[in-house]
């Protein structure tokens, strides 16, 4: 090797050493730092830089907005004494009330509600189920996976007003049902799965009367509720997500029997799950005694491929005819079972098809007084009404539309994340 070549290699090596030394001038310049002036300590320079650093806030309108401007209905109930239909509008976070015989004309843009409850003061968010007091007409509205309140509204209330009464509930509540004879209110929670029972008049931080939860209950992401007070039974629909609980309790950690209040810690209940035990079970409907509490096994369970259950949501029970109606939002079906069914059984009726206008049916109500079946469709801005015993590809006898007939539905729910597919130029959201 020549002396010139040797000197060149040595110079290169020295430069590399200087470059990668953490405090060297070359290293600082490569990392975007200004070289300190001669005679100025690096610490002083850093202090000066921190003191002069400012945060710039950019305020500008978005380039475009993807939003559903119309009502998307998640639940339905009927005030039989006043001939009114109450619909939960989960998309616009409001409650809408229509005449029971409302039928949107084909050429009309939509049907205007008789009254609307909605706005910031109502604290309505992600409202996913509804109950109407048959005597007073009061509306009980469940807030789901955003806020932790049950709101109660009198018949006179409308607009952007505070609720007449509020009950603090666990996070991720979903279904509601009321035993009018016992004056007890039943509410499901999805995770940890449970059924909590309060006095019907409960408000504030009032503690529940009893809690059904634990591994033996076989509750798995509990959704809808239906009660048979005549035979003292409770039905719960389960989507299937499950994990074992430490000591078979979760919400019960906060519960002291006989206490008037409880402190619902929303964040730590997930710590009650046993790590590594999570699994997805087949969807099911579990049946319990009406007064069930603690960690008890169901009396029976509808589950298996013949049931057609696919993320079952809300339910309605026709006690008179002993028939259980279940919404199947994924497959756009209403499934009807015998109330006494058990195991891997097929429904006795299925309402499904293009003529039904079902689209992500989430809420269901059986009106035995008028012999009708009502469905809230989250996927097409509508509520549809059928004869009670409708099956197959039967068209609705009436339809309430909250949007023009061909209005698209982005199906936004509780959006948790968003990403962009650069290959297909598509936005992907996770609800």
Can you characterise this structure?
- The protein has 431 residues and is mainly β.
- 8% of the residues lie in helices and 33% in strands.
- It has three helices and 28 strands.
- It has helices spanning 3-20, 25-30, 42-52, and strands at residues 73-79, 84-89, 94-99, 115-118, 127-132, 139-143, 149-153, 165-168, 173-179, 184-189, 194-199, 210-212, 222-228, 233-238, 241-242, 279-280, 284-289, 300-303, 315-318, 323-328, 333-338, 349-351, 361-367, 372-377, 382-387, 398-401, 417-421, 426-430.
- A four-stranded antiparallel beta sheet has the order 1-2-3-4, with no helix packed on it. A four-stranded antiparallel beta sheet has the order 5-6-7-8, with no helix packed on it. The protein has a four-stranded antiparallel beta sheet with strand order 9-10-11-12, with no helix packed on it.
- Strand 24 and strand 25 (382-387) form a beta hairpin.
- The longest helix is centred in the N-terminal third of the chain and has 18 residues, at 3-20.
- The protein is globular.
Question: How would you summarize the topology of this molecule?
Answer:
Elements: H1 3-20, H2 25-30, H3 42-52, E1 73-79, E2 84-89, E3 94-99, E4 115-118, E5 127-132, E6 139-143, E7 149-153, E8 165-168, E9 173-179, E10 184-189, E11 194-199, E12 210-212, E13 222-228, E14 233-238, E15 241-242, E16 279-280, E17 284-289, E18 300-303, E19 315-318, E20 323-328, E21 333-338, E22 349-351, E23 361-367, E24 372-377, E25 382-387, E26 398-401, E27 417-421, E28 426-430
Antiparallel strand pairs: 1-2, 2-3, 3-4, 5-6, 6-7, 7-8, 9-10, 10-11, 11-12, 13-14, 14-17, 15-16, 17-18, 19-20, 20-21, 21-22, 23-24, 24-25, 25-26, 27-28
């Amino acid at each position: 090797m020549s002396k010139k070549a040797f000197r060149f290699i040595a110079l290169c090596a020295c430069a590399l050493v200087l470059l990668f030394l953490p405090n060297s001038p070359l290293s600082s310049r490569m990392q975007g730092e200004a070289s300190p002036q001669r005679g100025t300590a690096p610490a002083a320079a850093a202090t000066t830089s921190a003191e002069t650093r400012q945060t710039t806030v950019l305020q500008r309108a978005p380039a475009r907005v993807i939003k559903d401007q119309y009502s998307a209905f998640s639940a339905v109930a009927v005030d039989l004494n006043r001939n009114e239909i109450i619909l939960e509008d989960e998309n616009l976070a409001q409650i809408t009330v229509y005449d029971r015989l409302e039928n949107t004309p084909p050429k009309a843009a939509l049907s205007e509600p008789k009254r609307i409850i909605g706005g910031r003061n109502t604290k309505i968010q992600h409202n996913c189920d509804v109950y109407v007091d048959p005597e007073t007409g009061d509306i009980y509205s469940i807030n789901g996976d955003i806020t932790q309140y049950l709101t109660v509204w009198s018949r006179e209330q409308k607009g952007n007003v505070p609720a007449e009464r509020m009950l603090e509930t666990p996070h991720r509540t979903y279904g509601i049902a009321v035993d009018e004879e016992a004056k007890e209110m039943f509410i499901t929670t999805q995770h940890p799965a449970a059924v909590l029972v309060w006095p019907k008049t409960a408000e504030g931080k009032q503690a529940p009367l009893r809690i059904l939860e634990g591994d033996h209950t076989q509750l798995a992401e509990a959704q809808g509720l239906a009660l048979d007070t005549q035979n003292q039974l409770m039905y719960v629909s389960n989507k299937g997500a499950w994990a074992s609980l430490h000591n078979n309790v979760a919400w019960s950690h906060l519960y002291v029997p006989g206490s008037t209040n409880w402190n619902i810690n929303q964040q730590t209940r997930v710590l009650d799950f046993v790590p590594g035990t999570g699994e997805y079970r087949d969807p099911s409907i579990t049946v319990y005694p009406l007064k069930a509490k603690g960690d008890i096994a169901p009396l029976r369970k509808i589950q298996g491929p013949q049931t057609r259950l696919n993320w079952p949501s809300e339910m309605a029970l026709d006690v008179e005819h002993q028939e259980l109606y279940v919404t199947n939002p994924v497959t756009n079906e209403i499934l009807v079972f015998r109330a006494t069914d058990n195991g891997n059984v097929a429904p006795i009726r299925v309402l499904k098809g293009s003529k039904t206008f079902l689209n992500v049916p989430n809420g269901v109500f059986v009106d035995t007084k008028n012999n009708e079946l009502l469905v809230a469709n989250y996927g097409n801005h509508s509520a549809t009404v059928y004869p009670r015993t409708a099956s197959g590809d039967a068209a609705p006898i009436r339809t309430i539309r909250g949007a023009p007939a061909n209005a698209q539905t982005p199906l936004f729910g509780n959006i948790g994340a968003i990403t962009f597919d650069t290959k297909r130029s598509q936005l992907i959201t996770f609800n």
